[in-house]
């Protein structure tokens, strides 16, 4: 079952100093994002805005490849939290392989980043002409000895590192036919 936002939903900082979303009816959603990763006051309490609702539905629409509704909702809500509250990031492109085809991603698009040993699946939560902030949909991944990218972790990369999953899927379908 997919959750439908309403005017009772409220963002707040939980006791464990992680961003939380009160969904009403005694339901709480806890994000993995701690206070130090976010731009919001300690005593923050904000409504789930019209913009948040638009992002939520946009992300849900792009996450159709995730079959379990609860996991889709979790990814969409974490995407909204990153888009709305995450501290601005500097690009950390050096962890990922440059791509020959430059791709300008769209908000909510599912993309991949190449770390030599595998492709990480990511969702675009903010984009500009040169760089993109994305959220990991892959399992926890060690990028370097001192850098781990957890599931739902955010990272900013230059757009020359991005692989379009849509284009990859189309090319795969063409290879199957031809």
UniProtKB/TrEMBL annotation:
Keywords: Cell cycle, Cell division, Cytoplasm, Septation. Belongs to the ZapC family. The keyword Cell division applies. Residues 88-166 form the Cell-division protein ZapC C-terminal domain. It is found in: Cytoplasm. The keyword Iron does not apply. This is Cell division protein ZapC. Contributes to the efficiency of the cell division process by stabilizing the polymeric form of the cell division protein FtsZ. Acts by promoting interactions between FtsZ protofilaments and suppressing the GTPase activity of FtsZ. It comes from the Bacteria. One of its GO terms (cellular component) is cytoplasm. InterPro entries: ZapC, ZapC_C, ZapC_N. Residues 3-87 form the Cell-division protein ZapC N-terminal domain. GO terms for biological process: division septum assembly. It comes from Oceanisphaera psychrotolerans.
